Amino acid sequence: MMMMMMMMMMMMMMIMMITMMMVIIRMMTMMMMMMMLMMRMSMMMIRLMMMMMTMMMKMMMMVMMMMI
């Protein structure tokens, strides 16, 4: 009886461990995907910001020329 109980416990533990591992792996993959997306988005954002800055500079120059 005791041996049976122990075996059952061991099996349960193994199943739990496997499920946990699967969940962790899935989470990690999800995180990686998110990170990749974020990186891409950040790159796009930086590019956009640079474009905006250049546009602003051009506008400022135009305004200055007009003022003069």
Describe the structure.
The protein is an all-alpha fold and 68 residues long. Helix content is 97%, strand content 0%. The protein is built from 1 helix and no strands. It has one helix at residues 2-67. The longest helix has 66 residues, at 2-67. The chain is rod-shaped. The protein starts with a helix and ends with a helix. The relative contact order is 0.05. The mean pLDDT is 82.
Strand content: under 5%
Oligomer: single chain
> Roughly what is the average pLDDT, rounded to an integer?
82
Pick out the low-confidence regions: none
* Rg from Cα: 29 Å
Shape: rod-shaped
Protein name: G_PROTEIN_RECEP_F1_2 domain-containing protein
Helix/strand layout:
Blueprint: H1 2-67
Organism: Echinostoma caproni
Protein name: G_PROTEIN_RECEP_F1_2 domain-containing protein
Provide keyphrases for this structure.
single chain; 68 residues; mainly alpha; 97% helix; rod-shaped; G_PROTEIN_RECEP_F1_2 domain-containing protein
Short description:
With 68 residues, the protein is mainly α. Helices cover 97% and strands 0% of the residues.
